[in-house]
Amino acid sequence: MFPVGLKDIIDIVLVALLLHYSYKLMKQTRALNIFYGVLVFLVFWIVVSKVLEMKLIGGILDQLVSVGAIALIILFQEEIRHFFFQLGTQRQGHRLIRLLKGERRRGLGSEQRHSHDDIIPIVLACLNMSKQRVGALIVMQNDLPLGDLIRTGESIDARISQRLIENIFFKNSPLHDGAVIISDNKITAAACILPISHDLDIPKDFGLRHRAAKGISAETDALAVVVSEETGNITAAWNNQFQSHITAEELETLLMKGKF
Fold it and tell me: pLDDT, tens digit, for every residue of 172-219?
């Protein structure tokens, strides 16, 4: 019998947590079957090489495992990228970002981050576009910068205005496709291209804007607000989750707190 100490128990728990988190991450993508295959291969390798000590096939499998890290990076490059995005959007990641930026800690809803004058034009624009069945996608930057996404669109750098938001998403406007990104209490850019979520659990009546909203909410801590062109419903996405059929009061509360 091998002696089992506290360090071994912690090691086992950490591996179990890593496998559990990896499973949850893979479950949201089409890579779940590959994940199962990798687990089966690892179990087979451990049994053959470490338990039964079969030298020939064990040596072959050892060589495959030695280059397995590179193979896993190639197979799961999108999932690994998403893993580190998720890691950075956790509360500890937020604290580190604020520390590096020299900002004081701000609690979840302990204080309002945006002024009423900045939020009301967004709310009124969403309500008006909802009534007129005008599709829209608005992204509010939080702690994590969105510079790479802002560069995919057209720079605006204008104060937040209800009329400007509605004109951007007007059906004949050249900027109505894509997302408007708001950062530092300004409309920073329009017609921005966002990452698309391939989550199979997204409702069938949600379109490309909703998939883009969930995509950006999965990779960053931004809030994405979608106005449906078909139904006029307003949906918010944050932390890879949807909140549908939200009212004006609920939207104002989300935007005012700034911690969505």
Answer: 888 888 999 998 889 999 999 998 888 777 888 888 999 999 989 888
Percent of the chain scored above 90 by pLDDT?
30
Where are the alpha helices (H) located in the chain, listed in sequence order?
Answer: 6-27, 32-45, 55-66, 68-75, 77-88, 91-101, 116-131, 147-150, 162-168, 208-219, 248-257
pLDDT digits (tens, 9 = 90+) for 219-244: 888 999 999 999 999 999 988 889 89
Is 139 in contact with 255 (CB distance < 8 Å)? no
Residue 135 contacts residue 235 (beta carbons within 8 Å): no
Residues 6+ apart with CB under 8 A from 239: 89, 217, 221, 260
- What b-and-e string marks burial along 75-89, b requiring 16 or more CB atoms within 10 Å of the CB? bbeebeebeebbebb
Closest CA to 260 of 226, 224, 219: 224
Distance (Å, whole) CA 174 – CA 171 = 8
Residue 155 pairs in a beta bridge with 189
